[in-house]
Each structure stands twice: as structure tokens, then as C-alpha cells.
Design a protein that fits this description.
- This protein has about 280 residues and is of the alpha+beta class.
- The chain has eleven helices and eight strands.
- The chain has two domains: about 110 residues, Roll (Membrane-bound Lytic Murein Transglycosylase D, Chain A), CATH 3.10.350; about 120 residues, Cell wall hydrolase SleB, domain 1 (Arc Repressor Mutant, subunit A), CATH 1.10.10.2520.
- Helix 7 packs across helix 10.
- This is LysM domain-containing protein.
Length: about 280
């Protein structure tokens, strides 16, 4: 697990400007940053690479930092009471995608502020938006029904349980069972906290300020199949078992990270250390 920087900074390297063409049609001007590729940008905005190339008159897949690309995307105007989480949910996108598209690593919003909604097309009509919102609410209800039937402490889907189990597999294979359940507990503690995203998926894939919170997400080990014991541990954590005792972070005891070691210790199992 990677440490969270004490202060979430805004990365000035990635700047987004907005051009409003009409009430229903808008575009985002995205400034390419280091390590960007057309493929990554196409995945973020859910737009084919060929479309991006055609829109920007690109003759090859080569792009460079500082280059500006126009990508079709809906623009949202922040209203009173809005939060990043609510905006992401209402529009059916992940919090991580919303943050990345807008280089928005803190939670501060201002009424009237413009935000790019990556993957939400600018031609979306009011009726389609309403349908999307209804679909999202139905999905939330389905999540609640599934978790309630199992007395879970948070709503979740089968895919999210598998994702949690894969994280546990990558982080704690060979460690005591309590350590595995405790890792699930840390993720759930974050979901329940107002300081973190509010779904298992968004917590695990959270990259505030460009800092990965979980090493397996960064190195790709999160994509390996979950072990049967990790699936069992994930299930126990979802039912409320928390050997981490309220921890928000965990790390291997070989870590030399002074920031992590300075935090209040809640539990230790094998090589795994849990802190608040």
C-alpha cells in the first residue's frame, strides 16, 4: 500500500480549458502531460483513438506533453450543494475519472465552476440524462438489496467483492488470516469515511494527487485471480469483521516510510502493520 500525501496537491502539469459551443454541444481542450498516450486519453473520454485523431488532424499516434487535444465531452456547471462524489454518481462515471479529467485532487467546489464529465457525450439530451440518473438509482438500490441480504456493512456488487479479494490476494498472500481480513477492513473503513470515495471500486482505484493508494493497482497485480482464502476474508470484512481496529492505512513492516510509522498503531499481524 502506498502512503497518501498529507496534502493533496493540484498538479499544474495537467490543465483543462473549456470551450462552450452551444447549450447542448461542448468540447474539452485537454493538454497532454508526460506519459499520456492517445489510448489512455481515449479510455478516459470513452472516445475512439481514430475519432481523436480525426478531430485533431493527427497523422500518427504520436503526441507530446503540452500538446492540446480537443475531445467531445459534456461540461457540467457546479450548483449549490454539489460534491464531486454526487456529480460522478449522477452522471454514471467514477470519481477517479472525474478527478483526472479535471485535474481535481481536492474536494473544494465553487458554484458556477465548470467540470468536464469524461465519457459523457455532449449530445446527451435531457431525457437521456434523466434516464441515466434513474438507471444509476436503480443500480444503487440493487447494490443495497444485495448487501442487505447478507447483513453487509456497506453496499457492494459481486464484482466489487471479487476486486476486494484480488487486492487481499496481492497484498497478503502468505500472511495470517487476520491480516487478510484486516486489509478488507481498511478498504471498508475508507468507504465509510467522508474523507475517501464511497464505493469499494473508487477507494481501491483512488489516485489522489497522482499517488496510488494500493501498490497492486500500480503494478498490475490487482488483475490476478483471487485466492479462495482471500474471497473468504473479503466476505468476512464485508460482514463487518475488522481486525484492523479502524485502521485507514496498512503496510509491510519492512517499510522505511517515516510518515506511515508515525501514525497511531492499531494492529499487527505477521508482517502487516495497520495504522490510523
Amino acid at each position: 500500500m502506498n502512503r497518501l500525501k498529507p496534502v493533496r496537491i493540484v498538479l499544474t502539469a495537467s490543465l483543462l480549458s473549456f470551450v462552450l459551443f452551444s447549450a447542448n454541444v461542448s468540447a474539452a481542450t485537454y493538454k497532454v502531460v508526460k506519459n499520456d498516450t492517445l489510448y489512455k486519453i481515449s479510455k478516459l473520454f470513452k472516445t475512439p483513438v481514430t475519432t481523436i485523431k480525426k478531430t485533431n488532424n493527427l497523422k500518427s499516434d504520436s503526441i507530446k506533453p503540452g500538446q492540446k487535444l480537443t475531445v467531445s465531452s459534456k461540461i457540467y456547471t457546479v450548483k449549490q450543494g454539489d460534491t464531486l462524489n454526487n456529480i460522478a454518481k449522477t452522471n454514471g462515471i467514477s470519481l477517479a475519472s472525474l478527478r483526472k479529467a479535471n485535474c481535481k485532487w481536492n474536494n473544494t467546489l465553487a458554484v458556477g465552476q465548470k467540470l468536464i464529465l469524461p465519457g459523457v457525450k455532449s449530445t446527451t439530451t435531457a431525457s437521456n440524462t434523466t434516464a441515466s440518473t434513474v438507471s444509476y438509482k436503480a443500480a444503487v438500490s440493487a447494490r443495497a438489496v444485495e448487501s442487505a441480504s447478507k447483513s453487509a456493512v456497506i453496499p457492494y456488487t459481486k464484482a466489487e467483492k471479487d476486486l476486494l479479494a484480488r487486492l487481499i490476494t496481492a497484498e497478503a498472500t502468505g500472511q495470517p488470516y487476520n491480516a487478510m481480513v484486516a486489509i478488507g477492513g481498511v478498504v471498508i473503513n475508507r468507504v465509510q469515511s467522508k474523507d475517501w470515495p464511497d464505493t469499494i471500486t473508487d477507494v481501491i482505484y483512488d489516485v489522489p494527487g497522482g499517488f496510488y493508494q494500493f501498490t497492486p493497482v500500480k503494478n498490475g497485480f490487482i488483475n490476478k485471480p483471487a485466492s479462495s482464502i482471500a474471497i473468504k476474508a473479503a466476505g468476512e470484512a464485508l460482514l463487518g469483521a475488522d481486525p484492523s481496529k479502524g485502521a485507514m492505512f496498512y503496510f509491510d513492516d519492512s517499510s522505511t516510510n517515516k510518515w506511515l510509522w508515525s501514525k497511531p498503531l492499531t494492529a499487527r499481524y505477521g508482517k502487516m502493520v495497520f495504522v490510523k
